Amino acid sequence: MYGWRGRIGLLIPSSNTTMESELWKVVPDGISIHVARMRLIEATIESLKEMVNDALKAADDLATADVNIILYGCTTGSLIGGVKWEQELSEKIRLRTGIKTITTAFAVNEALKELSIKSVAVATPYINELNEREKLFLEECGFKVVKIKGLNILKNTEIGKQPSWVSYKLAKDVYTPEADGIFISCTNFRTFDILEKLEIDLNKPVVSSNSASLWLALKELGVRERIKGYGKLLATL
Question: What is this structure's pTM?
Answer without folding.
Answer: 0.98
